[in-house]
From TrEMBL:
CDD domains: ASKHA_NBD_AcK_PK. Pathway: Metabolic intermediate biosynthesis; acetyl-CoA biosynthesis; acetyl-CoA from acetate: step 1/2. GO terms for biological process: acetate metabolic process; acetyl-CoA biosynthetic process. Belongs to the acetokinase family. This is Acetate kinase. Its cofactor is Mg(2+); Mn(2+). Homodimer. It is found in: Cytoplasm. The record marks H180, R241 as: Transition state stabilizer.
Length: 402
C-alpha cells in the first residue's frame, strides 16, 4: 500500500511517498517559491541522489502537477500509474473546533475547512489549494486531512478557554487550539515504545523545539495542556516569534507609534521580527546563536538564555499539572540537534527528578536515545520527529476504517 503525503505551505509544496509495507520512504521532495519568478524543485528517491532544478510554477495546482509527473516519469519515477497510490494524506495546520480527528475528504469537509480560513489565513487556504490540485491530478484517489490541532482537542475547557467575554468564544471561537499536534502525537507514541509501557499508563512532557516551538503536557496518552494558543505565537521564545508577552504591550505600541497602528504590522513584529532574531539582531537560527555565544556575543547569550528559560518554565509548570512525569522528550530541529540547548533546559531540574547525562547528551547521533543518568527518576529522551509518517499512518487508518 502506497500513501502520498502532501504538505502545502503558502508558497511551497512538500511531499513524501511511502510504501506502508515496512513504512519505507520511496520518494520525497519540495517545491519552494511558488508564484515567484523562479521556483526551486528539490527531490530524491530511495535509490537516487537529491536533484535540484529551477522551475517556473505559478500556483499550487502546477506544483502538484509537476510532482505527479515526476513520480510517473518512466526513467526516474517511483510509480507506474496513479492507481498505485491508495490514499493521499494532507497536513492541515488548523482544524478549529470542527475537526478533532483525521477525516476523509468530502464536499462537506472541504466546506468545513473553508470556514477555518479566518483563523489560519496564511496556511489553510494553501492547504485547500493543495487538496483541489490533488483531486485534479489524482482523480478517484481518496484524500485524508490530518490536523495539527487535532491531538490537542482532549484539553479540558478550563485549559483551552481564555478569560475574555464568553461571547467571543461563542461567536468567533477564540480559544487555545495548540499546534505541532502531529509531531507531539508521534513522539509520544515512540516514547511509550522506548519505555516499554502502554501510552495510557504514562505522563509525558514533549518539547517540539524548532523555529517554531511548543511544549505539551500528556497525561495517560491525552493532552491536558500545550503552550501555543489561538495561533502559534504564544508560549516559549522562538526563532522569530516573541512567545508569551503582556498583551497590553500591543495597545501601548499602537498608541505610541504610528507604524504599529494596524494589526498586520503588529503581527509581523511579533511573528517575524522577534524571538531569537529580535533579541540578538543576528538570526532566528539557533545554530547561528550558539556560534555567536561561543564568540562572546552578549545579545546572542541573552537570546539563548531567554529561550531556554522559557522552556524550563513550561516544563516545571506542566510537571506540577501532571503531578510527576515518566519522561521528558526533545524533538524537532533544535530539540534533536542542539546539545547546549537541551543541557541548559535540564540544568537545575534535579528536584523534579530530571538529571541529564551530559556526556551522552553531547554525543552526535540522529537516532532515538536516552540522555538521562541511570539514577534520574525521569527519562530524558531525544526522538527525531516524523510528521510525514504519522500523517501516512493516520491516512491509512482512516482508509481502512472506511
Amino acid at each position: 500500500m502506497k500513501v502520498l503525503v502532501v504538505n502545502c505551505g503558502s508558497s511551497s509544496v512538500k511531499y513524501t511517498l511511502f510504501d506502508m509495507d515496512g513504512e519505507k520512504k520511496i520518494a520525497w521532495g519540495i517545491i519552494e517559491c511558488i508564484g515567484l519568478p523562479e521556483a526551486y524543485y528539490k527531490r530524491q528517491t530511495s535509490g537516487t541522489e537529491e536533484k535540484k532544478d529551477s522551475v517556473k510554477v505559478t500556483n499550487h495546482t502546477e506544483a502538484v502537477e509537476l510532482i505527479i509527473k515526476n513520480l510517473l516519469d518512466k526513467k526516474t519515477g517511483s510509480i507506474n500509474n496513479i492507481d498505485e497510490i491508495s490514499v493521499v494524506g494532507h497536513r492541515i495546520v488548523h482544524g478549529g473546533e470542527k475537526f478533532s480527528k483525521p477525516v476523509l475528504v468530502t464536499p462537506e469537509v472541504k466546506e468545513g475547512l473553508k470556514s477555518c480560513f479566518a483563523i489560519a489565513p496564511l496556511h489553510n487556504p494553501a492547504h485547500y489549494a493543495g487538496i483541489v490540485a490533488v483531486e485534479k491530478m489524482l482523480p478517484g484517489i481518496p484524500s485524508v486531512l490530518v490536523f495539527d490541532t487535532a491531538f490537542h482537542q482532549t484539553m479540558p475547557d478550563y485549559a483551552y478557554m481564555y478569560a475574555l467575554p464568553y461571547e467571543l468564544y461563542e461567536k468567533d471561537h477564540i480559544r487555545k487550539y495548540g499546534f505541532h499536534g502531529t509531531s507531539h502525537n508521534y513522539v509520544s507514541q515512540r516514547a511509550a515504545a522506548m519505555l516499554g509501557k502502554p501510552i495510557g499508563e504514562l505522563n509525558l512532557i514533549t518539547a517540539h523545539l524548532g523555529n517554531g516551538s511548543s511544549i505539551t503536557a500528556i497525561q495517560k496518552g491525552k493532552v491536558i495542556d500545550t503552550s501555543m494558543g489561538f495561533t502559534p505565537l504564544p508560549g516559549v521564545v522562538m526563532g522569530t516569534r516573541c512567545g508569551d508577552i503582556d498583551p497590553a504591550i500591543i495597545a501601548y505600541l499602537m498608541d505610541e507609534y504610528p507604524q504599529y497602528r494596524d494589526g498586520a504590522t503588529i503581527n509581523n513584529l511579533m511573528n517575524k521580527k522577534s524571538g531569537l532574531y529580535g533579541i540578538s539582531g543576528l538570526s532566528g537560527d539557533m545554530r547561528t546563536i550558539v556560534k555567536a555565544v561561543a564568540a562572546g556575543n552578549k545579545k546572542a547569550k541573552l537570546a539563548f538564555d531567554m529561550l531556554t528559560y522559557s522552556v524550563k518554565k513550561y516544563i516545571s509548570s506542566y510537571f506540577g499539572l501532571l503531578n510527576g512525569i515518566d519522561a521528558l522528550v526533545f524533538t524537532a530541529g533544535i530539540g534533536e540537534n542542539s546539545p547546549s540547548v537541551r543541557e541548559k533546559i535540564c540544568e537545575n531540574l534535579s528536584a523534579l527528578g530530571i538529571e541529564m547525562d551530559v556526556a551522552e547528551n553531547n554525543e552526535p547521533s540522529g537516532e532515538e536515545r536516552v540522555v538521562s543518568t541511570a539514577k534520574s527518576k525521569v527519562k530524558i529522551l531525544i526522538i527525531p520527529t516524523n510528521e510525514e509518517l504519522m500523517i501516512a499512518r493516520e491516512s491509512k487508518k482512516v482508509l481502512s476504517n472506511g
